Each structure stands twice: as structure tokens, then as C-alpha cells.
Amino acid sequence: MSDYLFLLLGIVFAALGGELFVRGSAGVASVLRVAPSIIGVTVAAFATSSPELSVAINSGLAGKSQLSLGDALGSNIVNISLVLGITLLISGIPVSAEVLKRDIPVAILAPLLTGILLIDGMIDRLEGLFMFAIFAAWMATTVTQALKNRMPSNGGVPTTDRVIPWVQVVAGLLLLVAAGRLIVLSTTGIARDFGIDDFIIGATLVAFGTSVPELASTVLAKIKGHEEIGVGTVLGSNIFNSLFIVAVAAIIRPIRAPLTEVFPAILFGILSLLIALPRRGTGWVRRRQGVVLVLMYSVYVMTLFFFSR
């Protein structure tokens, strides 16, 4: 019974945290004079990926790196197929040319790299360091571009107006992280009662639980008219998961996983990103693409269980 209570409490925390976080992110972007999408793809993406980081560290120390790999890859699919898909069901979303050029190629190539490294059935510490180096290069490029493209100052901003957005962001993130943790604990407990494999638990239930922060913040960002924050958070979180989270898990303890079991998660992760690309010449991701993404997630879960037999 406690697992179900934790699950309910996690959902409540996610709703409250998402509301505070979206408000604060828009305010922080204004104070720093950067595009809101930059806040989404860096600060927001890192913070909403903190549940995955917690899973990676704890599972690595416990000798269960498969769980963290499944969580990272599964979270990527949840982020695009469910989080972005559900958001698109509300209405279409514009994607800037800068995001298309800088973030989407990295988000697509990152899971492909994971698959290549797993050809021998293992990602060792050296390969983990290599993935971390790629992540650091992407992050440095993103921050450099943000500093170059800062908007002109509108004069002095009152101290109160500068502090409040940061307080909202921190409070929102704490609630979102707590929500992710509660949902991971509850869903994992429920799954273990049914004797489900670690990678499958990681790639489905734990992945959904750790993606609750992205779901709450992205949907609320869309409702409040800040789509760029939501899209940035989803893409940035995918890059964090594929390069940073998997790298940390591998550095703590080499990840051993058969490529046949991991392949569906990698394949569907790449396919979901390709489906979510804006139609050529429009810069918009359409509602019908959201329908396809949500349906594809159902196919992914069924395929994953079939391959794990």
C-alpha cells in the first residue's frame, strides 16, 4: 500500500514543482538576458535529469549498472514519445533553427554511440570517459553561444525581481526531483513484486518515474506559452542521459549488457527523435506527430518485453 501512496504523492509533487519551475525559468532567462531555450537545455535539463543521475550512482555502487543503462535509454524514449508526444496533443510546437542545428544532431548521435560501444557487450571506464568528453564539448558550445547571443540590457532590474525567479526555480526543482524519486521507489517496488528483470524495470517503470520532472515542466510550459523551455528541457535531458548519465555509470562500474536486449531501446530512441523533427521548411512539430509518438511508445514497451524473453 505504501508504494501506491508514494506514487500518488509523487504525482502531486510533480504538478506543484512543474508550475514553480516554469515560472522561475522564464524569469531567470529574462534576468540573464538569454533565450529561454538555453535555460531549458542546460539548467533545466541537468536538474530534471538528476533522478537518472541518482539511479546511475546508486545502481553502479550496488553493482547493477544495467539498471542505470535501462533507465537512461528508456527515459530518452519517454521524454520524446510520451513527454513531447503528450505536449503535442495540446497543439503544435515551434522549434528554432539554433536547436535544430546544435542539439538535435547530438541527441540523435548519442544513443547511436551507445549502441556502437555495446557491440562487445560492455561499456568500460575508458569508453565512459570518452562519452563524458563529448558531453563536455557540447555543453561548452551551448554556453558559449548563449553568452554571445545575450539580449541587450533593459536597465537595472530590482533586486527582488532578480531573486524571486531563482527561488521559484530551486523550489520547483526540489519538488520535481522529490517527485521523480518517489515515483521511482514506488514503481520499482511494484515491479519487483512481479519478478521483472532489472534492465526492463529500468527501461520502463524507472524511466517513466525519472521522466516525471520533464513531463510536468514541459506540459506546463506549453500551457503557459513557454514552449521553448519545454523543448529545450526534453532535448537537453536526452543528451544528459545518453552522454553524461551513462558515462557516470560506466566510470563507477563498467556496464555489461547484451546488445540484443538494449537494441530496441536504442532503435526506438532514434526513431522517436526522427519522427519528432519539424517538417521541412515549417519549423513546427505538428499535433499528428504527437499522436504517432504516443502510439510508438506502446509498441516500444511491447517490443522490449518480447526481446527480453
TrEMBL record:
The protein, known as: Sodium:calcium antiporter
Main location: membrane
Membrane topology, record value: Multi-pass membrane protein
One of the GO biological process terms: intracellular calcium ion homeostasis
Species the sequence originates in: Chlorobaculum thiosulfatiphilum (Chlorobium limicola f.sp. thiosulfatophilum)
PANTHER family, per the entry: INNER MEMBRANE PROTEIN YRBG (PTHR10846:SF8), SODIUM/POTASSIUM/CALCIUM EXCHANGER (PTHR10846)
Annotated GO MF terms: calcium channel activity; calcium, potassium:sodium antiporter activity
TM helices/strands, residue ranges: 77-97, 104-123, 129-147, 163-184, 199-221, 233-252, 258-278, 290-308
GO CC annotation, single: plasma membrane
Subcellular location: Membrane
Pfam families (UniProt xref): Na_Ca_ex
Sodium/calcium exchanger membrane region domain mapped to chain residues: 4-141, 166-305
Keywords: Membrane, Transmembrane, Transmembrane helix
InterPro entries reported for this sequence: K/Na/Ca-exchanger, NaCa_Exmemb, NCX_ion-bd_dom_sf
Highest taxon, organism lineage: Bacteria
